[in-house]
Amino acid sequence: MEKIIYADNAATTPVHPLVLQEMLPFFTESYGNASTVYSVGRNNKAAVEKAREQVAKAIGAQTNEIYFTAGGSESDNWAVKGIAKRMAEKGKKHLITTVIEHHAILHTMHALEKDGFEVTYLPVDEYGLVTPNQVEQAIRPDTALVSIMYANNEIGTIEPISEIGEICKKYEVIFHTDAVQAVGSVEIDVVSQNIDLLSMSGHKFGAPKGIGALYIKRGVNPINLIDGGAQEKNRRAGTENVPGIVGIGKAIELATADISNKANKLEKMRDIIIEKVLTLPKSRLNGHPEKRLPGNANFCFEGVEGEGILLKLDYMGICAASGSACTSASLDASHVLLAIGVPIEIAHGSLRISLSENNTEEEAHYIGEKIFEVVTQLRNMSPLWEEIKDI
Ligand SMILES: *Cc1c(COP(=O)(O)O)cnc(C)c1O
Predict the structure, then answer these.
(1) Helix (H, G, I), strand (E, B) or coil at 298
(2) 8 A C-beta contact, residue 21 and residue 259
(3) How many A from CA of 209 to the centre of ligand 1?
(4) pLDDT recorded at residue 38
(5) Which residues contact 110 (CB under 8 A, 6 or more apart)?
(6) CB 33 within 8 Å of CB 22
């Protein structure tokens, strides 16, 4: 087997070697419970607090506004359910989100609808953008929360978060953003962007799976999701995952250290791929041409199935993703691609490439060429392509 080219960093990332190095002692020598008084525990408490500071600093928050969770899904659930249930006490039972959120938000919203909440799902334009004006129009006197993702995990579109934050502030509505894809990729400042709650997940930027954080602005008070012990200032129970917490602290420091340089490097590689791939007939780039994550390229190809492309790329040592999990069942077409107006049959021919700093320009050229080759091969075998190619 040749070298693997990993281009699925939006799904997950490997643990950074320096992150692992920082974590290791906390599995063995320094195993004490961070909530105890003896010194092995106290050292761990200090390590947790250092990580809290690292996370806070990376997004412009105060240290005591960061709460550790077991990942992005938990942070999203806590923010949305916690605020919804808190505001329901004041008779506010209306929530606003978008149709292109991650399922950690969408399915949470569906659960709340069953509990008697009303949810407005804002549509997006052909690029996947929602406008601040749409948010403003949707806000009502009984609106409890606006939850809009920072950047989309499939098509990479970056939403106008600062402008939406300003609208929410003006109407005194709490604003949450699922920033799982954005942290470590774009500059974030929760204060100037008027963000009240922000979700992140360690495994999307070089920490392990199963560790995340929720930023909760001082004075914002979601109901607890996990009840139990007094950890995380009585707001999130459970013995601290010290190695994970140390890991997310180190990872966020590394990921945000030189973010604009890193973004330039990723954009250059991404654009090499885009340029090559779009020379294929009946291909399109999904998402916004500029307002997109630096490492994300998402394509649709008429006349081919995403799964077929993935399997062939895998055979060539390239790991990528497709928006559709299954070949023909319409239910499995990506809700994001459908929301930006991609016809269902074309949505099945989608491909997502998501790069990291571990990729090289040489790999970007290789990826572009191989996608070109694979799509051409698949089309040559496809009776469907015969029918549509000249239309
Ligand atoms: C990955 C992801 C999540 C879920 O995070 P987990 O840590 O895997 O639970 C939520 N939202 C977005 C946008 C994501 O990309």
Answers:
(1) strand
(2) no
(3) 10
(4) 83
(5) none
(6) no
Mutate to test the pocket of ligand 1, among 68, 69, 76, 102 (most ligand atoms within 8 A of CB): 102
Does 326 qualify as catalytic in the annotation? yes
β-bridge pairing 296-301 and 283-286: antiparallel
Alpha-helical segments (H) within 154-241? 161-170, 231-234
- Encode pLDDT of 325-352 as tens digits: 444 444 578 999 999 999 988 998 899 9
Measured from CB, residues less than 6 Å from any atom of ligand 1 are 71-73, 76, 102, 104, 149, 153, 178, 180-181, 201, 203-204, 212
Polymer length of the chain: 391
Long-range contacts of 41-50 (CB under 8 A, 24+ apart): 44/240, 44/242, 47/242, 47/245, 47/246, 48/240, 48/242, 48/245, 48/246, 50/246, 50/249
User: Taking the chain, what is the end-to-end CA distance rounded to the nearest angstrom?
Assistant: 40
CA angle 228, 214, 97 (to 5 degrees): 115
Which atom of ligand 1 is least distant from the CA of 70? Answer: 7
pLDDT digits (tens, 9 = 90+) for 148-193: 999 999 999 999 999 999 999 999 999 999 999 999 999 999 999 9
Residue whose C-alpha is closest to residue 156's, from 352, 368, 366: 352
pTM of the model: 0.97
Of 168, 300, 319, 326, which is the active-site residue?
Answer: 326
For residue 106, count other CB atoms closer than 10 A to its CB. 18
**From ligand 1's centre to the CA of 341, what distance in Å?**
24
DSSP 204: G
Tokens, residue 382: 């496809």
For residue 198, give the nearest of 173, 217, 221, 224 by alpha carbon: 217
Position in ligand 1 atom list of the atom nearest CA 11: 1
Distance 309 CA to ligand 1 centre (A): 24
pLDDT in tens, 181-208: 999 999 999 999 999 999 999 999 999 9
